Amino acid sequence: MIDFEHVGKRYGGRFEALANLDFRVRRGEMVFLTGHSGAGKSSLLRLVMRLERPSRGRILVAGHDIDRLHATQVPFYRRQIGVVFQDHQLLFDRSIYHNVALPLEIQGVEHREAARRVRAALDKVGLLYRERALPIELSSGEQQRVGIARAVVNTPALLLADEPTGNLDPQLSADIMALFEDFNRIGTTVMVASHDLALIARLRHRTLRLHEGRLVADEEVA
Amino acid sequence: MSRQPSAPRGAHSQRPTGSMRWRAWARHHRAMALDSARRLLRAPVGSLLTMLAIAIALVLPAGLWLALDSARLLDAELEESATLTAYLSTAIGEDEAGRIEQALATQAGVADTRLITAAEGMAEFQQALGLRDALTRLEGNPLPASVVVRPADPDPQAVRRLAEALEAVPGVDEVRLDLAWLERLRHLAELGQRVTLALGVLFGLGVLLVVGNTVRLAVENRRQEIEVVTLIGATHAFVRRPFLYSGAWFGLGGGLLAWGLLTLGSDWLSAPVSALAASYGARFHLSRLGTEGSTILLVCSILLGWLGAWIAVNRHLAEIRPR
C-alpha cells in the first residue's frame, strides 16, 4: 500500500529530517511509527499525505508515484486517505455532525447519503447521541473520536494518525487504539505515529522505529 | 491512487457520474451563496460599511457619467442650431439675391436656406440693438442681403468644407461660421469623458482594494478552516467559493447603495439644474439611470466585488499551507 524507496527529506537544504527510508506497508496492515519527538514521524506522515515532497527517493501509494501527481490531482488523492491529528483539527463553529460531514461535503455527496454515512461513522465511535453538540462541549477524548469519525466517514483505504492519543489518559488512549484496530480488521490499512511505547507494546503490531530521521528498527510481531 | 479507481474499497462509492457531479457542484454553489450571505448579515455594521465604501467609490464616476450623458443631449440640440451665414455682395439686388439663394440651396450638404434681404436685415438689427434713431439717420442701407444656411451634417469639419464651397458661389461675398464655441464644447465633452474614464478606472481599483481587504480579513479569520479542508481534499475552487460569493454580495450591496445615492442625488439636483439651464434659454435636464444604466452599474459592481475577492483569496491561498 505504501512503498518508500530510499526516501530522504531535507528542509532548507541543510537539516536532514529523513534519510534513506526504505520500507513497505502492505495492504490491510496496521503499523506503528515510533521514535522521540523530532525523530521524523510527522515528516514521514506529511510525505504520505503529500503535504511535502521527498528530496530524494520515491513514494508509491497504491502503486502510484505520488510525487508525480499534478497539483490539481492532489485534492483527489487526499480524499482517499483518512487522517487523524493530535489536535484533532475540528472546526469549532459547527456541530459534530457537520464536522464529520465535511469530507463528504467537499466531495459533493448527496445529503441523504451523507447523513447515512455520517451517522454510521458517529455510531462507530460511540458519539451518535452528540451529533448536534458543538466540539467545545465535548471532552478531549470525545473530540478525538469525532476526529476519527471524520477520517473514516469516507471509508478510506488508508488511515493515518499522528499522535492520536497525545493528550489522553491511558484508558482513553486504549479505547482510541481499539477503534483503529477495528477499522484495520475490516480491511483498512492503518499507520499510527505514537511515542506511547507502553501502549504500542501491548497492542502487538508491526512497529517502525525512527531515530534522527533514520529507520533503526522494523519489528514484525507474529 | 490518483483519480483512477485503484483503491479497492471506498473509492467505488465516491465516483460520481457526470450529472451527479454537476448537481453536487450546483448544490455547493447554492449553499455557499446562502452561507456567505448569512455571514455578511451576522456582521451587519461591518458589511454595511464595506458596501458604503464601495457605493461611494461607484457614485462619483457614475454621477459624472450621468452629467456627461445630459451634456450630450444638450450638445445634439446645439448642433442642430449650428448654421452658416453667407453674406452677399452689397451691390446685389433682391431678385439677384433670390437667385443666389436658389443656387446655394442646390449645393451638396445644404439642408435648407433662408434669405434675409437687406431690408429685413436692417429691421432685425434695429430691433436687436434698439438703435432705431441712430440708424434712420444713415443714408441708404449699408447691410448686405444674407442667406442663412443650415448644413445637413453638423460636424465642424464638414461645416467648414461646406463654407469653403459656398464662398466660391458667385455673388457670395463672405461666409461666416461661428464654430469656435461648438468646438470648445466638443473638447470639453471629450475632456469630461476622459476624466470620467480615468476616475472610473481609479475608483474601480478602489472597489477592488476595499473588497480585497475585507475578504483578506475573512480569509485570515477562517484560516484554520481553510487548512483543515485542504488537508482532507478540498480543491482550491472549493476553498475560494464562499469568499467569491461574499465578494459578489459586497458588490451587489455596494451597487444598490450607489444606485440609491445616484437616484436621490439627481432628484435633489434636477430642479436647480433645470432652472439654471432655463435661465440661459437652454433645455437641459439631468439624466437618470435608466434600466440599462442601472443594470450596467450593478453588473460592474458585482463583477468588481467578485474580482477583488478572487485576487485576495488567491494571494492568501498561496500563503496558507497546512501545518
From TrEMBL, chain A:
This is Cell division ATP-binding protein FtsE. It is a peripheral membrane protein. It is found in: Cell inner membrane; Cell membrane. PANTHER family: CELL DIVISION ATP-BINDING PROTEIN FTSE, IMPORT ATP-BINDING PROTEIN. Keywords: ATP-binding, Cell cycle, Cell division, Cell membrane, Membrane, Nucleotide-binding. GO terms for biological process: cell division. It comes from Halomonas ventosae. The keyword Ribosomal protein does not apply. It comes from the Bacteria. It holds the Pfam family ABC_tran. Part of the ABC transporter FtsEX involved in cellular division. Important for assembly or stability of the septal ring. Residues 2-221 form the ABC transporter domain. One of its GO terms (cellular component) is plasma membrane. The lineage of its organism: Bacteria, Pseudomonadati, Pseudomonadota, Gammaproteobacteria, Oceanospirillales.
Automatic annotation (TrEMBL), chain B:
Residues 199-315 form the ABC3 transporter permease C-terminal domain. It is a multi-pass membrane protein. It comes from Halomonas ventosae. PANTHER family: CELL DIVISION PROTEIN FTSX. Signal peptide: none annotated. Belongs to the ABC-4 integral membrane protein family. FtsX subfamily. The chain crosses the membrane at residues 48-68, 195-215, 243-262, 293-313. Forms a membrane-associated complex with FtsE. The keyword Signal does not apply. Keywords: Cell cycle, Cell division, Cell inner membrane, Cell membrane, Membrane, Transmembrane, Transmembrane helix. One of its GO terms (cellular component) is cell division site. Residues 84-175 form the FtsX extracellular domain. It holds the Pfam family FtsX_ECD. It comes from the Bacteria. GO terms for biological process: cell division. This is Cell division protein FtsX. Part of the ABC transporter FtsEX involved in cellular division. InterPro entries: ABC3_permease_C (IPR003838), FtsX (IPR004513), FtsX_ECD (IPR040690), FtsX_proteobact-type (IPR047590). It is found in: Cell inner membrane.
